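User: Sequence in, structure out. Go.
Assistant: Echoing your sequence, followed by the structure tokens.
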Amino acid sequence: MAKQSGLGVTITVDDASGTPRDISNDINSFTASTPRAVQEVTGVDKSAMERLLLLGDATIAFNGTVNTATNKSHDVFKTVTSSSVPRTVVIDYGDVSLTCELLFTDYSIARGADGSLTWTTSGVLADGVAPVWGT
């Protein structure tokens, strides 16, 4: 399969005890970024930029609907602001998956004027290991 839609994505995140939990049904949208730092190394003898790729990074943001059932999103994220333990995150969509160890830096819950109860959280790379795209 070559081109893919965003349908049928599976997302697992470790809970505080390190157990992977499938919270796909609670996540409404997400973004994942795997940027690399760049060093400009252009010599005075060049007429265009030269660059070297440096350290890799990863950031992920999840947006979801509050689910307080056992082992669902609230259980997974309720301790992120009181723990410095990295969480393994796997985003799997068909032929490929992204795996990385993240520190989650926030878990925010919002009640909308329409009565909706949603949450957001974001994570940053934690362990010095570049994120891995697998097949």
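User: And one key feature?
Assistant: Helices lie at 73-77.
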